[in-house]
Amino acid sequence: MNIPILYEDNHLLIVEKPVNMPVQQDRTNDRDLLNLLKEDIKIRYNKRGNVYLSLIHRLDRPVGGAIVFAKTSKAASRMSSLLRKREIHRTYLAVVRGYVKKEEETLEHYLRKNRKVNQVFAVQPHVNDAKQAILHYKVLERKNNLTLLHIKLQTGRSHQIRVQLKAIGHPLYGDQKYGAHVNKVGEQIALWANKLSFIHPVKKETITITSMPNDDGSPWDKWQLVKEIKNEI
Predict the structure, then answer these.
(1) Where in the sequence numbering do the catalytic residues fall?
(2) Is 133 left (phi over 0), alpha (psi -120 to 50) or beta?
(3) How far apart are the C-alpha atoms of 146 and 148, rounded to whole Å?
(4) Contacts of 171 (CB under 8 A, 6+ apart)
């Protein structure tokens, strides 16, 4: 199994999710990350019977990067509590179309998901089922009519980053669902789960895990800053 393990102890497993792999089994029946990790744990630790592994948060199928799982029910319950209280701090790297003018900004929208088409829309606050979505971005670099952003999530809504950036006129590079008018079929979405930071649910120590995209593939290879950050970790 070629899935990098970023952190592991008796309570947690943090890995680098490959791009274009579902986190959980879906209707495509493609190999999913959760079941692959369960199989790997069973083999590595020679476990009998079912392996317990709980998903704490999600990443969209085309997105790669750091993702955390709980190996015990106690850890799962405590991590879920941290997530609800917004005490799991998540940051992302993103490349968007166009030059983002403001150097940094907090974006707030209300999002509503249409489950029939698996798509999320920015709507007015009074719309039924609309949920508040907040993120903070900072511009890292601009070139070739693209902008590299560092993003901190305050809320964790479905497709949040993709929809909020589209709403300000800067869809993600390669995003076919929310940027088909500016992206070509076959381009890989440029969104990466870069960092996770939280207080360990059992050990009570700060855990900070960093993951960087490969800089040998478009569009990540265009950014010297990505290479420099990668060399520092």
Answers:
(1) 60
(2) beta
(3) 7
(4) 96, 97, 162, 165, 178, 179, 182, 183
Chunked mean pLDDT (size 10), the chain, 233 residues: 92 96 88 95 92 95 96 98 95 96 97 93 95 97 94 94 97 95 92 97 97 78 66 49
**Burial classification of residue 21, based on how many CB atoms lie within 10 Å of its CB (0-12 exposed, 13-18 middle, 19 or more buried):** middle
Please provide the distance, in angstroms rounded to a whole number, between the alpha carbons at the two ends of the chain: 23
Burial 108-118 (b: 16+ CB within 10 A, else e): ebbbbbeeeee
Chain center to CA of 138: 17
Q: Which residues of 50-89 are buried (b: 16+ CB within 10 A; e: fewer)?
A: ebebbbbbebbbbbbbbbbbbbbeebbebbbebbeeeebe
Q: Using CA atoms, how far apart are residues 180 and 125, in angstroms rounded to an integer?
A: 26
Instruction: List the structure tokens of 123.
Output: 């709507």
Strand duo 104-114 + 119-123: pairing? antiparallel
Give the span between the Cα atoms of 42 and 35, in whole angstroms. Answer: 11
DSSP tag of 128: T
